[in-house]
Amino acid sequence: MVNVKTAKREKVTEKKFEFEIKDNILVGDDLTYPENYDNVGEIILEILRSEPDHIGQIEATTGKQSTYKEMLDKSVRCAIWLRKAGVKPGDVVAVCSSCYCENYIPFLACLYIGAQCAIEYHQLPARTFRHFLSIVTPKIIFLHAHALDNLIKAQNETSTNIRRVIFEDQVPNEESLDAILSEQTVAEIEKFRCEDIENPKHAALLIGTSGSTGVPKVAELSHLALKTMMHPVYAKIPDRVWLCVAGMRWITYFWNLLGGLRSNATRVIAEDAQSAKYYLEIIRKYEIEYYGADTNQLRQIYKLGLINDYRETKLKTLRFGGSPFSRDIHETLIKELPQINTLQAYGSTDIGNVIVAQKPGSTPGSCGFIRPGIKLKVVCTQTGVALGPNKHGEICVKSNTRINKYRGNPIATRNAIDSEGWFHMGDIGYYDEVGELYIVGRTSQFIKYNDCCLSVLEMETIFDMHPDVYKAVVIPVPSEIEGELPVAVVEKLPDKEITEHELLTYFKKNMPEFYMLKSVKFVKEMPRTSTGKIARNDLKQMLCVAM
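Structure tokens predicted for Luciferin 4-monooxygenase-like isoform X1 (547 residues):
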């Protein structure tokens, strides 16, 4: 057994999380929960009651503030209404929203009463609504007025009777959120008590996975998973003002909400999928200290020449993740923004948490070290045997935040969770001699070319470093002789001109000799899924049609 707590690597000796490597398994320290409640709603109400005047959130565009007192009042009123509407523990309530400042209300209400909260995007075509409703079968759905027509169409086509609550007021023949909240009395609020949770492993949250290479699956997360997400080891951060840009469709939304409450931080809520320049103004205006961003935002900071602007802000922590990121760009940001801790993290909706994270001093390009309560191994993709340091294989994880299953998809569940309870992340990676984790790529994103296995991530990283390229995605296309050939789909930086020949020459100069690139195709903008990921299947279909 290697005790990593005493491993000798000066730059990380006092900066990492504590864990051990035993039989080629990385084992994080045990978690001791500070509360005895199985219902995470009890923890939340305790926090909200503790500082009623604390500003829990601010809407970035309007400056509208919500105190803990208001958040408690509205969420409890909603819980009382749900009970009166016949919602019982285990029933499903759906919420279709994005970065709306009051969408926390039905979610917290569901936690309080032990209902399952099913999350979907706020703009859905009728066919997607049909699919969503068939899987989660909600009793009640909260949504925005602009989505109402498509929902009604889906309900009519499926003959489902679902009670609707609209976030906005004055929609004809529809109940509004404000109206249902106003029906509850102060006496009812004072008498309100959370539901006892019979089994903490029962479902609490239903949320779509990213679906970058296929149809999103509905992940089922338990009450225990949410309680674990809110554990101080994961959720408590000293920075006082957070910028939260993840829409409700992202698991990051829930990390921010629960973490913000645990940390008694003020969350500044802004629309997702905006530019780094847009968020820069919010960071300046509200003196943001903590910003959880996806890698696309860091790419913009670097590519669009915004480093000096971000250097002049009050930011203390820039935590990022979501997709692979260039080590060279990461090193540059660390060097140029020394007052900001620019730290990578690794997790997913399916595993329910950030399971690996950097601290100051971690190696640029790594994901950092496993966190307490986590077990992680890297296994041979052929034999399933756990591998030692610096050997590439599939990453497998055990955690209390892991999904129970994919709702309505037993085949996907069996493929993801093995008989010993290990969740297969679908990522290829390795850990070094002291346990720092590195991602090499997705198991589905290696291209078989002749007798070689080409890493999509490695090819995309090379394009990341080109000064005129904003984003490149490498897609395999069929070939009768070679099997598959890689094609680069490139989104150029604004006002930059570069040719296919120049990029092919650049690729050949910077990649190993056995790497081959068939061609380069330019797009104005990358297609995205409903969860914001690049839609690789759409790109592949586009390329196959063009060939």
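Residues 1-15 have pLDDT under 50 and may be disordered.
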